[in-house]
Amino acid sequence: MKNTPLAERMRPKTLSNYIGQEHLLGKGQVLATAIEQQNIHSMVFWGPPGVGKTTLARIIANYWEMPFFQLSAINAGVKEVRESIEMAKKARGAILFIDEIHRFNKSQQDRLLGAVENGTISLIGATTENPSFEVISALLSRCQVYTLQHHTAEDLDKVLQRALTEDEYLKEQKIELKETQALLHFSGGDARRLLNLFELAVNQNKGKTVVIDNTIIEKLARNTALYDKNGEQHYDIISAFIKSIRGSDPNAALYWMARMINGGEDPKFIARRILISASEDIGLANPNALLIANAAFDAVERIGYPECEIILSQAVVYLASSPKSNASYKAIKTAKQLAQKTHNLSVPMHLRNAPTKLMKDLDYGKDYLYAHDHSGNFVDQEFMPDALKGQKLYDAGNNRQEKIMAQRLALWWKKKYNYNID
User: Fold this and answer.
1) Of 70, 90, 230, 271, which has the fewest CB atoms closer than 10 Å, so is most exposed?
2) pLDDT score recorded for residue 221
3) What is the pLDDT, as a whole number, of residue 193?
4) What is residue 349's predicted lDDT score, i.e. its pLDDT?
5) Are 294 and 275 in contact (CB under 8 A)?
6) Are 151 and 189 a contacting pair, CB within 8 Å?
7) Which CATH number fits domain 232-320: 3.30.572.10, 1.10.10.10, 1.20.272.10, 3.40.50.300?
8) Mean pLDDT of all residues in 366-376
């Protein structure tokens, strides 16, 4: 039907029309082989919005000729899960597709275990969140996780060309796709959003439509509601939120968080970003920030909306108002780069473990000095490989807490690491 959105009209029904995910569906790749060989199993598709998770589930059901039941974790509960399992029993096996499975709580996920284990259903879950955090381990162990990736520019161009040449309603119009840079940019690798934007650009035009970048930008400015929490706005607002915390502006941080809450953002996603910021942007300038953020995350998991927004607010204000340091963040980045370049350096003999007599005879652990046997629980010995003696990776931040740490390190190591104690 013409009133059906273009993205839905162009939803692929076979693997031959499916675009992208070559690492899974290319010739000889793991998922393609499983589908072709009728290797029926439960699985979880993990990836960003608009990359074809739902479409792929439907294609698999068609290919395996199995009944297909679909639930959305946003509005389905234990009752709906139970009813779907009963229908699958009558059908003697079916695929149960659960969109946004990460939104199911533990008891809802527990309801699926028996049916998955005895083969009543082959579960296909779709999630935009890391399943190792959001799916219970008992269920995850019974599923194969497949990671889907953002569409490439080449993939998106194929999606556009397919729409132009195959959609019956677009073929009736005179459309010249002159510029695609804005379409590709604002799609963010999301094919559904790409087609929504394209449809917005060509709808309600009389005569020939020439699609150029300015057209897309102008249409976008007048139709900002097109972007929801799964789209470009999701990433822009979380970026503004984190940068407001980093910039020590609790008012702006609260505003951007309120925008996310009003848009129905998953509170655990917000809590995770707060937890990361506590280490990345505040770090050792205020170590209590990590404790506050971690406590907030735990509380959000237990309470949920709407009450958890109070806890999130407390954590955000605390973090935004804290002194800032990215010293430990920079230190691990530098350390990883150094480790990549020097991964072949041997561990010094005095630092090696010596659990057997042979190792002791080979001088493993010889001359190691146990710090607690010395004054102040410190002894000057070398812990780096010989080639990296004196290499400094952690440089204390310019804040009261880390200045105290730098003074302590300078007292212990003298000028070895050149800690600034001014």
Assistant:
1) 90
2) 58
3) 85
4) 92
5) yes
6) yes
7) 1.20.272.10
8) 93
Q: Is residue 357 classed as helix, strand or coil in its secondary structure?
A: helix
3-class DSSP state for residue 380? coil
Residues of the chain with CATH 3.40.50.300: 21-147
Question: Which residues fall within 8 angstroms of residue 47, CB to CB, at 6 or more apart?
Answer: 53, 128, 147, 148, 149, 150
For residue 306, cis peptide bond before it (omega within 30 degrees of 0): yes
- Does 48 score more than 90 pLDDT? no
Q: CATH topology for 21-147?
A: Rossmann fold (3.40.50)
Fold classification of 153-226 (topology level): Helicase, Ruva Protein; domain 3 (1.10.8)
In this structure, are residues 387 and 345 in contact, taking their beta carbons and an 8 Å threshold?
yes
Residues of the chain within CATH 1.20.272.10 domain(s) are 232-320
Specify the range with the lowest mean pLDDT, choosing from 174-178, 278-282, 354-358, 400-404: 174-178
Angle CA 180–182–186, to nearest 5: 125
- In angstroms, rounded to a whole number, what is the distance separating the alpha carbons of residues 199 and 291? 48
For the chain, give every residue range classified as CATH 1.10.8.60: 153-226
Instruction: Report the alpha-carbon distance of residue 239 to residue 208 in Å, rounded.
Output: 39
Q: Which residue has 């509170």 as its token pair?
A: 267
Which pLDDT score, from 0 to 100, does residue 54 have? 93
**Alpha-carbon distance values, 403 to 23, 281, 400 (Å):** 49, 17, 5
Name the residue type at position 287: P
Torsional sign, CA 108, 304, 238, 233: positive
pLDDT tens for each residue of 183-210: 888 787 888 888 888 888 887 566 678 7
**Binning pLDDT at 50, 70 and 90, where does residue 220 land?**
low
User: Residue 386, SS3?
Assistant: helix
CB burial readout 267-292, b (16+ within 10 A) else e: bbbbbbbbbebbbbbbbbbbeebbeb
Q: Of 266, 297, 215, 212, whose CA–CA distance to 100 is shortest?
A: 266
pLDDT score at 227: 38
Q: What is the pLDDT of residues 316-362, one digit of tens each?
A: 999 999 999 999 999 999 999 999 999 889 999 999 998 888 888 88
For the chain, helix (H) and strand (E) counts, in that order, are: 21, 7
